[in-house]
Structure formats: structure tokens, C-alpha cells
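Take a protein:
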Amino acid sequence: MQNQTFNTARILVVDDEAHIVQVVALKLRNAGFEVEAASDGDEAFAILKDHPVDLVVTDLQMPAMSGLELATAMAADPQLLHIPILMLTARGHLLREGEADSANIARVVHKPFSPRALLSEVEALLERKVRVA
């Protein structure tokens, strides 16, 4: 990555499967990002209210608050609305038409995913965010 902004980017990874969080967080940390982790949407939303991040990578299906519910809550909050969301989902669990747009979800990546491809998606979203800002 050529832009200094990437070196300070904070990313929140949200998934109820600990091994997914570990794989994603390791890949992102190795790329130079600061990573926070949460195991469900409720925990993630609490983190976001106290410590806003530059990007959220979240699973769709989780207990308590799902990734879609988290994205919808973020879209309704003026302080969190600008944070891009990358949604991870099992192939059998698709968003209905229009759900991604109405919840401000920037990208959807299907599980199983390549950590390298996921990193490329994260970098593209952060680059786009920097260009828009």
C-alpha cells in the first residue's frame, strides 16, 4: 500500500466463529492495520460507540445482533454512517435484494473466502474512502 493513511487504519472484525476472527485479524495485522475484534453485533456496536474505526468486517449470521442488524444500526447513526462495511456470509445465506444498499454495506464476500482476496477488498474499500474524504 502506498498511502500513509492505510498504516493507521483501524478495522473492526466481527464474527461469532473465533477461528474466522483469528484468520482475518492476523491477515490484517500482518498488512499493517490495527485490528479490534468482537464476537457479535452487540459487542461491535458498543466498541464503535466508544472507539470508531475506519472499516468494519462482519459476519452476517451471529447471535444477539446479526451483521445486518449491526449494519442497519450503523446506517442510522450519523457518527457511524460513514464507516464502510464488508459483510462476510456463508453461500447459503444471502441478503435479499436492496438489503445491502439500505444498510450501507459496501461489499459482500462469501465464505469460504481467500484471506488474500479479503485483504484486497479491504484495501480497495479504504482506498475509496480516502479518495471520497
The two ends are 18 Å apart (CA to CA).
